[in-house]
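Input.
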Amino acid sequence: MKRRTLIKGSATALLASSLPKLSLATASASKSGEPHYDYILTAEPATAQLAKSGDTEILGFNGQFPAPVIRAKQGQPLRVKFVNKLDEPSTIHWHGIRLDIAMDGVPYLTQAPVPAGGSFLYEFTCPDAGTFWYHPHMNSVEQLGKGLVGALIVEERERPDYHDVIIGLKDWRLKPDGSYLPLSLPREAARAGTLGTLATVNGEQKPVIDVPAGERLRLRFLNLDNTRVYNLSLRKDDAKVIAIDGSPIAQPYTLTSHATGAGMRLDVGFISPSKTGVEIPIYDMKGRFGIEICRLKTISNDKTTTPKAGVPALPANPIPTPQLDKAETLSFVFEWAGALSPSDKDGQVDHSFWLINRRAWTDHSHQHLPAPLATLTLGKTYIFELHNATPHHHPIHLHGLIFTVLESDKRELTPFHTDTILLEKNERAKIAFVADNPGRWMFHCHVIEHMDTGLMGYITIA
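Output.
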C-alpha cells in the first residue's frame, strides 16, 4: 500500500482498514481447519518516502507507514495474529485498552518476547469505545522511532452520527537525504527528549486531507511521536472536544488549544462547511500564531443527508466510579536523577536520568524485574497524588486501567477520564481509579527516552 493511501482520494477511504478482514471477531476454523483472525500484523523492515531527497529505511507494520488502521467493536472479541519479521524480539502493546494482563504486550512482565521469526496471538475484548493505538514495548526508542505505531479504533455499539478522520502525528529524526540522525541524544534525553527534524501527518508533510462538505466530523488526533507535545487548535469556535485519550467528555467544550503529549489522543467534533473547496488549517500552537501541521479540504458529499446541527456528546464508557470517601491515597514523585550515570566494564555509559519515588528502572531487557512501585487490593479505590518535580512535561501513562483526573495545582479542570496525564513542570495532580483489573501494570512516562532512562515502573493489583 502506498504511504498516501490514507490521505488521498475520497474521504471515505480514510475509514477503510488496509488489512485483510478474514472474519469478524470469531475463533471458528475455516473449512481447511486453519484458524480465523480479524487481522494479521507483521513487524518488518520497509522503505518509505518521507524526506524529499531520499527514501528512509523504516520498520513498519505490514511493511508500511502509516500502519494499518485496526477497527474493533466495543464489547466484541478481537483476534490479531502478530508475526515478527524483525531481526530482534518485539511485542504489541494495545495502548489504553483495559484487557487481560496476558495480552498487554510488555516483555517478561506480561508475556515472553516474540522472537525474531516468531508469532503470537493477541485475543481480547475492548470494553471501551474510542481512539486508541498500538506499538511495541521492546527497544522502544528504535522500534517506535522508525515507524512501528498504528491506530486502533474501537467503534461504539451504536455508532454516533460522525464521519471519522484519522490524524496521526509523528516526527522523524532524519537528514535531508532520508537517512537517520541519532534517535536519542543523552543531553536531550535528560531534558524534554530528542525532538524530530521532520514532522508528518499520516506519513506526509503538511498534507491536505479531504473531508465531506456539510458533514459532522470526528477528528481523531493521535500523537504517535516518541517525544513531542502538540498544542492542537483549529481556531474555530464551533470545534468541540468530545473525547480525551479515548474517553468521552460528558459535556463537549470549545477547543482553544489542547496540549497532547506523546501517546495521547484527542477527539474533536465540528460540522464542516457546506461548500466544497473550503480549507481549514490545523495548528500546533507554538508561539502566538502557531504552526500549521495540515489542512482539511471539503469535497463533494456522496451522502444525501439533512443539514447537521450541533456536536452531540459520545456515549459514556463503562468506567467504574471511584469511591473517594473510601479511597487509599498513595504518592508518586517523578524527578531527575542527576548527571552521573554508571558505566560498565568496557566504559560504556548506561544513562539513568529519571526516577519514580527515588528509583530508576534500569533493566532495559525487562528480564530482571524490580519490586512493584505499589501493591493494590483488587476492587479497592485508590487516589494517586502525582508530583512532577522536574522542569519538563511528562505524559504519565498507566496500563490496563482508566483513571479520573480529579484536580491540579496548575490548572482548573472538570474531572475527566483518561489513561495518560500530561504533567506540566512542577505540577501536582490527583487521579483516582478502582483497581478492578488484576495483574502487573506498567506505570511510566511516554516520552520514550524518559521511560528508557529510568522513568518507568509497575503496580501490582491482586
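Residues 140-145 form the longest helix (6 residues).
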